[in-house]
Design brief:
The protein has 277 residues and is an alpha+beta fold. The protein has 2 helices and 13 strands; from the N terminus they run αβββββββββαββββ. The radius of gyration is 33 Å and the shape is elongated.
Length: 277
């Protein structure tokens, strides 16, 4: 009986020693993990102090002035590394033909003269909607809180060309009635202001012809430099300068007697503002 009791106590002692050894082997691992985590945090703080843009995600809005129109943009970004951020964006805007010319027109109503304007020979408004994916790569950090971070932004995606008929409000002398008309080969002279029986009053409202908009699929790519002058990394305040290229599956008619094309290049300047977390 004494031998059995002695064996039991020996087994209990060995078990306790094994548990202490196991706990001892785990304890340094936990301490080591905490130390590594603290070191990573210290490195991020140091990199931010040195001008790196440290964040997990960002969102921004942009107002673009293109050499052939305008655009509005919304962008989302996700931190990938100290120097790289994955981006996706949505952009809506309008392309204008470089030879567009505004023509003033006059019409009278009960002794009053109204002055309006329209674009000579224009037959379609060309709007676009883009969805794209790309990257932002840090070239130079801010150096200090009041510095400027320079990044390269590049990428591409799909485009939707939207052709909306351009309507004119006219006074038809033949029938003595005001009407809105869109271009057709039969009324070409009206859009060139050559029809003596019809007075052009001006362009129709923005929403006129919206239901007749034609969709043309395409693709786009862009490359730019972004100059982020925001005082703190939590605030995105930047000026972006770049170039766009767009290709559509068919030629886009915009202006009479001018070459139609389906490949468009332009340069742009954008003001971008948003936040980071």
């Amino acid at each position: 009986m004494k031998k059995i009791i002695l064996v039991v106590f020996v087994l209990i002692g060995l078990s306790g020693m094994a548990q202490q050894n196991t706990a001892g082997s785990k304890e340094p691992t936990r301490i080591q993990k905490k130390a590594e985590r603290r070191e990573r945090i210290n490195q991020l703080i140091k990199q931010e102090e040195e001008g790196a843009l440290i964040f997990q995600k960002q969102s921004a809005f942009g107002i673009k002035l293109n050499t052939d129109g305008w655009g509005l943009m919304y962008e989302k970004g996700k931190f990938k590394s100290v120097s790289k951020t994955n981006l996706w964006w949505v952009e809506l805007g309008e392309h204008k033909h470089p030879k567009e010319e505004r023509i003033p027109s006059q019409s009278s109503n009960q002794g009053f003269i109204f002055v309006s304007n329209y674009i000579y020979g224009k037959i379609n408004n060309f709007y676009y909607l883009k969805v794209g994916f790309g990257q932002q790569k840090l070239i130079g950090g801010k150096g200090n809180k009041n510095g400027v971070a320079v990044s390269a932004v590049y990428g591409g995606g799909i485009s939707a060309g939207l052709l909306k008929p351009y309507y004119l409000d006219v006074n038809n002398k033949t029938i003595g009635q005001r009407e809105s008309i869109k271009y057709s080969p039969d009324n070409e002279e009206v859009f060139l202001n050559l029809d003596q029986n019809i007075d052009v009053i001006g362009k129709s409202g923005v929403f006129k012809g919206l239901s007749e908009t034609k969709f043309v699929p395409g693709a786009h790519a862009k490359a730019a430099l972004r100059f982020d002058y925001g005082r703190y990394n939590e605030v995105l305040s930047a000026i972006e300068v770049g170039v766009n290229a767009e290709f559509y599956s068919q030629k886009m008619p915009m202006l009479l007697f001018n070459e139609e094309k389906n490949l468009f290049f332009n340069a742009y300047v954008a003001i971008t503002f948003g936040s980071r977390k």
